[in-house]
Every structure is written in structure tokens, then in C-alpha cells.
Amino acid sequence: MAQNVVAQNNAGSAAPRTGSSGTNKKKETCVKRSPGRPRSEESRLSILRSTIKMLKEDGGFSELSIEAIAADANVAKTTVYRWWPTKAALVADAFSHSAADELRFPDTGSVVSDMGLQMRRLIQILRSKRGRVVSALLAGGQSDPELLKAFRDRFLWPRRQHAYQTLQRGIDRGELPAGINLDFILDSLYGPIYLRFIIRHDKLEDRLADEICALVLKGLKNPPQS
Amino acid sequence: MAQNVVAQNNAGSAAPRTGSSGTNKKKETCVKRSPGRPRSEESRLSILRSTIKMLKEDGGFSELSIEAIAADANVAKTTVYRWWPTKAALVADAFSHSAADELRFPDTGSVVSDMGLQMRRLIQILRSKRGRVVSALLAGGQSDPELLKAFRDRFLWPRRQHAYQTLQRGIDRGELPAGINLDFILDSLYGPIYLRFIIRHDKLEDRLADEICALVLKGLKNPPQS
Amino acid sequence: MAQNVVAQNNAGSAAPRTGSSGTNKKKETCVKRSPGRPRSEESRLSILRSTIKMLKEDGGFSELSIEAIAADANVAKTTVYRWWPTKAALVADAFSHSAADELRFPDTGSVVSDMGLQMRRLIQILRSKRGRVVSALLAGGQSDPELLKAFRDRFLWPRRQHAYQTLQRGIDRGELPAGINLDFILDSLYGPIYLRFIIRHDKLEDRLADEICALVLKGLKNPPQS
Amino acid sequence: MAQNVVAQNNAGSAAPRTGSSGTNKKKETCVKRSPGRPRSEESRLSILRSTIKMLKEDGGFSELSIEAIAADANVAKTTVYRWWPTKAALVADAFSHSAADELRFPDTGSVVSDMGLQMRRLIQILRSKRGRVVSALLAGGQSDPELLKAFRDRFLWPRRQHAYQTLQRGIDRGELPAGINLDFILDSLYGPIYLRFIIRHDKLEDRLADEICALVLKGLKNPPQS
DNA sequence: GGATAATCGAGACGGTACGTCAAGTCTTCTT
DNA sequence: AAGAAGACTTGACGTACCGTCTCGATTATCC
């Protein structure tokens, strides 16, 4: 049923734009364009924008209706269905489209500081309207593996790649012991944040980032002497 | 009309109809029974059972339909609506009804061991079919605060109460330093578990419990000497 | 299913009142009263009153709900069902209970005048709120023969009996020819009134009565000479 | 959203798709067809047919359920609701759709004969299964002015137009006096028929038509000499 | 005076149909 | 061909009454 959610649906974007120098009289498009009316970039963006907008405003994933998106985007319902096989695919696409790269990892020369800063930033994002989108994505993902995969592929893994580097720098600098399981460390660092984000049983404050770093990274630094 | 989602709907549990102990002459019935046909306990249980059953089987919270529950429970749809104002209320009730007390905290004389055993058990439950119910609850809760509150009130807090005691025993025994924020510790312990459960990016194995305990609790034991 | 709608449901009314001479010491009730709590006359009247009230106010027969009647009459729904097998039976009963004897036939010494006056009165009633009850009765009767029968037995026939007498007086006085079909005459007289009442295509005014009388009765008076 | 009950829903009747006659180069289509999938004529007819069918079979107007109609017509319930705002509108439409022109007024050269024949035909129709439809329409109309209006607009008035002509011919021929109120005459003629049809207190036979004509029209012919 | 019996209130029960919403598909005209 | 428009089937929604049922409380007669 679900087609590749991860694939770039925005095909066709590639390059009829690069006019390509030349002296051809007629259509000098290098790239073979299929006949017929080309996909409307305007519609595509409008749909993605509306999706994000409604996720931020209203409710969760299941409250989101394609009907409403199409209406808000001033687009026919069929246009949505033509390009995204499921609501999950659309939301995943919209999410990745909106995912600004605000979560860069800094390099201050200290693992604790680097991780702390980035985690702080994540907390801020989760608390913002963008957090609603993440929330919807995770909620929807609980009954749609594809959606969850999209979250991982477009949000989790790219950031983990940077996190690995940050941690590795710490190891190289001797701040962290070698031979540790990086994924496990990262789960320990981010777990508490997501826990409070999901269950909402306690405040999700900036300094939580520091407290976790203090506990986890310094716990690593000083191996048990017992 | 609106019903307290948290309140126990199973009133009339202890019906002392055959009271009569004592020497009173007339009516000694302590509990005044309201007039009218009494609620069918059979229906109530059947509905709760079917709810859990369908959550375990099919999909998530939004895939669950009251229509289907009523059909499966051999009960009129109106009977469901008479007692539970929303699907969320029903699922919350069903969840708490099914939440057996399999998650008791042991008392082995060691914090690390106590917590580890309990976390192990949680992991097993999350991996089992019951995990689907938790998953649905958390997913649904992302767009329904009441549902999330129900999860906390009926699942999280009761268990935290025991956890506090377990940790306190550790402090009393000198295994943990005094003056620590218990909730923060618990979030650190359970965060990674729930993270893997929700995002499903890594295996959720039993030994994860021990690894977290080792990192977090032993990190506490040995305060940084720097 | 339907029990005799026409039968007096208010059995038991018969005569414990006629004390019957005698010298009995105790309870000299001649009529054996069955044991058990007697029917509440208050409830019965309240139900009938509410039924009429709602028919006058709201909509037609099918808009009338037993639920609403019971609520309005401050009576349990079961009490209604105990005494009237169907809504039709109840409405029929209520109608006959409310049917005041305002439609007496006068005796002025002239058929035309007698009939005219009575028809005038009928028109006034149909135009009043009571007309809504008649309308509901006829509407309901179209899919419930029992209800229609009730209308005839309790409204139509009693009045026709008097009409026969009025017409006969006219015949005796020589105002009308002998040997005419009285029912046909009455249908001719009342038909136009009911037609306008039912189809509401034209005004239902008092003078319609006179016009019909003029046409029909005078038409009878002067037999075609052709 | 609300739909004119009286309006012809069967738009698009004359679709000149294959226009092209003439010398125009391009599109000569006179009637602009709106975009989108066109309404299914098949569904429309099926619904109307089923409506009539069920009215003939089962019970009255209130016993008729849109659910059942949709099922019988093999059509989704929403399709019914899309085109007819209320059950009344649907029934009115169905009625007018089924109302064949079997009630033409003849022109035999005699008013009495013309009217008698037509009234005879009406009686036959009312006695037939089609009578149940009329009955349902009038019953429903008692609590729904729109439905009653539909009956008048689609059944009563069209026929009255012809009746006026028939009567006028009689006047022109000297069979009837000039200056009479045609509507009053028609109410007098049809009133008794509908009275017996609605109240069902007496037989509705063919010869009733002649008897009424004899009474009413001949009564007119010979003005009272008193 | 206690058993018996029928009523009444209250209200839960299994149903049926309601009228609405959104889903996803299909058909048509327009660009 | 894509897009806009909009009709289509499907299925669940939450509500209103239906007519039935099971209660406790009441009110009578009968033994």
C-alpha cells in the first residue's frame, strides 16, 4: 500500500530551469520532460505548508484531514491524492520540508557543553509550535510504521550522525572513555527529554539538558571504582 | 453528563446486601441502592475486555472504533456511549482495568537490583501485546490531554509511588546520595526505555535495563571527583 | 399486537361509586376490586393532557414521542406503555378525552340553517388549535387503520347520528326530498371543508359553510327538471 | 445547500454534446457543462423508483426510511442526502416523477360527462397502489408544509388548470351559469372523494363520481327558484 | 398484621434510523 | 498529462426514541 515515503516526491524539479547555453531555436530543454501539463510547484508547496500549519494549530495526526488540507491549500483533493499515497506520507513529507536545520551541533571543545547546547535547543523546539508536529508524527507513527520510519530517516538519523562526531571528539579528547556504545549514550541523553515531552508529567525546561548531561556524561567520565 | 474519566466507574463493588449482622430490626443496608435497573456488570466487563482485545489486535487508538467494540462485546452502541463520554475515556478505563499489578517493585536489598528487575519487567510488557495498548494510549494522548492524564494517573503515578520508596531505601542504605531529585532520576532511568519503545530505532532488550541502571545509578553513587 | 383501541381503557371506573344500599358493616363495595395498588387516575389524566398539549404545540403524529409525553406528564415511560399499547391508541384516547361536545346540532326549524350552523362550528374548530389534533389523527391514521377507526368511532359517527336526525327533520318538513342517501349528502357537505383543511389550498372561512349548504341542500331541494 | 423542492432536479436533460452542426470552427456547445463528475442519472432514477416502490408497499410517510430507500436503490445513503434535503423533498420529487398524466380531462362536449370521467379516473387511482402514495403525501404534509405545497404544486394545480378550462367550456356552452367560483365548485366536486379516501368511512366507488356531478353540477344548472 | 399483588418511579438495555463527516475513487472539463 | 471540480461508495460518528427489562418503593386487598 504505502509507497516509498522517504523518496523525494518532488521529482520533476530537476532542472528544466537551467536554460543551458546554446543557440537552439526551439525547446532546448536538455532533460526529457514528459508530455502534458507539468506538476504545479505552487500547489505542492501550498499543500505542504497547509499541512504543517494545521498540525501546528489543531490537533494531532488523526484529527488532521486531507479534506481540510486541500481546502486550506486551495487545491483539489485529487491533487493531494495524486502525489501522496497516504496521509502519513504527506505528513512525513511536510515535516521534512519544514525541518529547518536549527539543530546543528556546536563544537565548543567540550562534549558536555556541545551536547548540552544541542539538547537545550531540542527542548526549545519541542516546546514550540513545531513540537506539535513532532508529537503528531510520533503519535501517528505508533500505528503506521512508515510514518515512524520517516521520522527516523529525516529527523533522527541525520542528527545522530552529527552526535556521533561530537561524542567521538569527546572520546578523542579523553573526556569520554573509549569503547562505549554511542547509541546507548544518546538514548540515555535524549530519553528523559522525550519522556517528558510525550507523557507530559513534568516540566520540560532548558536546564533539564544540563542536568542530564551532568548525570550521564559525568557518570561515564568517572567509572565506578567499586 | 460528562464523566470523570479518572473516577472508578465500577461503583457498587462491595454490595453488602446481606448485611443483617447485628441485632437491628429493620433495614440495616448501609449502601442505598438507587432505583432503576442496575447497571449490567456483564456488559461493562465485556466492553472493557473487547476494547483491550481490539487494541492488542488491530491498530492504534484512532483505528479503534466504538462501533466495532460494541459489536465485539455483543452490546448496543448506546450502552457504550451511556457510560463513556469519549473513546479516550473508554480506552483509559479499559487500560486501567487491564493493568494487572505485574509491575511490583521487589525489595532485594539493593537499589540497582530492585530497579533493574522492575525495569526489565516493564520492557517485557512493552514488548508484549500489552505494549500495543500502551502505545495506543500514548499516541491518542498526544491529541487528547484527558487520555494522557488517565495514563499518568492510572499507570505512571501509582508505580512512581513505589519507585520513590525503592529509591528512598537506597538512600537510607547509603547506596544513593541524599538530596537527589527522585523524579529526575526516574526519568533518566525510564526515558531510554520509552524512547526506544516510541521511536523504535533500536532493540528493546532486557539487558538495556541493567545498562541504564549501571550508568545512571552508579553515576550517582560515585560523584564526580573532578 | 394492538388491543382494542376503542375500548375504554379506563376500566375500573365503573361504579365503586354507587355505594349500593345495604347494611354491610365493612367495605360494601359491590364490585370486586382486584388487589394491588390501584391505577393512578392522576397519572392517567396527566398523560392524556400532555398528549393533547404536545399535539397542539409541536408537529404531527410522527413528531410526537412517547418519551416527551412521559417527561411532560411527569410520569415514567413504563406507565404510558402499561396502559396504551401503541402511540396511536394513546392519541386516540387523548383525542376522545378532549373531544368536547361543542359540536351539537341545533334545531332551528330549517335544515339549511341547522347544518350551516354546525358546519360553521366545525370550521372554527378545525382552524383552532384543536384542528392540529384532528390533523395529526388523520395523518397518523393513514398508516394506522386502528387510529383512523378511533377517529371515526369517537368523532365521526357520534356526530353523524345527530346529523341524520337533523336531515330527517328536514325531510319530514318537506325541505328535502325523501329517499336520499343521507351519508352521501353529508359527505357532500363536509367533503369540501375537509378538503381545504387537509390540502390547505384555499381559505377555510366561516361562510364556506353557507355556500356549501346553498349549493348542496338547495340543489337537492330543486330536482333537475331536465 | 437547501434545495428547491419544487424545482426540477433533473437538470442537464437536453445535453447537446454533439452539437457541431453549422460552420463554427470550435466549441459550439450551447449549454456550458460544469466540470466535475456529472450526476448519475441512473442513481437518481433508482432512488425515485425505490421511493415510490416502498411507499406503495410498506406503510406511510413516517414508516419510510431513507436508509431503506438507499439500500433498495443500491445507492449510498449520502447520495440521497446530497440531492434531497429532507425525506419530504424526496417523496415529493418521487411522487411528481411517478405522476403520469393519466388524469387528462376529456372533452366530450358535456361538462357533466367531462368532469365525471375525470373524477372516475381519480377514484380508480386513489383505490390503486398509487393511492398509498397520495395518502402518504397528504399524511406527511400535515406536519410538513413543504410537502403539502409540493403536492399542490405538482399535482393539484396542474390538474386544476385543466379543470378550469373544462368548466369554462361548460359555461360557454351555457351548461353552467357564468360568474360562479370555479375553485369552490371543484372543491365541492372533489371534496367528497377525498373525504372518503382519507377517513375511509364509506366505499369509494366509481359511481360516486356521477352522483357528485349530478348533485353539484345539476344543482348549479338549475338555480333555486325560491 | 403479615402475605400477596399490582402500580409507579427510575433508569439501563438491545435496537433502528437518523443526518453528518471524511475517506478514497472515479469521471468530466479545463489548462 | 495535470489540475480543478465534484459526484460516488463506504463506514463510523454521536444522538434520539423505540419498546423491553429489572429494580425499589408504594398502596392496596386478602387471609
Shape call of chain A: elongated
Q: How many individual helices of chain A?
A: 9
Average pLDDT of chain A works out at: 83
Q: For the CA atoms, what is the radius of gyration of chain A?
A: 22 Å
Structural class of chain A: mainly alpha
Name the helicity range of chain A: 55-70%
Which chain pair has the greatest contact? Answer: C-D, 49 and 49 residues
Taken in chain order, the helices and strands of chain A follow as: HHHHHHHHH
Question: In angstroms, what separates the terminal alpha carbons of chain A?
Answer: 55 Å
Q: How is the biggest beta sheet of chain A arranged?
A: none
The oligomeric state is homotetramer
How many beta-strand segments of chain A? Answer: 0
Low-confidence stretches of chain A: 1-30
Brief summary of the model shown:
With 226 residues, chain A is an all-alpha fold.
Task: Explain this structure.
The structure is a homotetramer of 226-residue chains. The first copy, chain A, is mostly helical and 226 residues long. Helix content of chain A is 60%, strand content 0%. Chain A contains 9 helices and no strands. The first copy, chain A, is elongated and about 60 Å long. The model of chain A is unreliable at 1-30 (pLDDT under 50). The interface between C and D is large, with 49 and 49 residues. The structure holds a DNA duplex (31 and 31 nucleotides).
What are the SSEs and their pairings?
The structure is a homotetramer of 226-residue chains.
Chain A: H1 41-57, H2 66-72, H3 77-83, H4 87-98, H5 111-127, H6 129-141, H7 145-172, H8 182-199, H9 206-221
Chain B binds a DNA duplex (31 and 31 nucleotides) through residues 33-40, 43, 65-68, 74-79, 81-82.
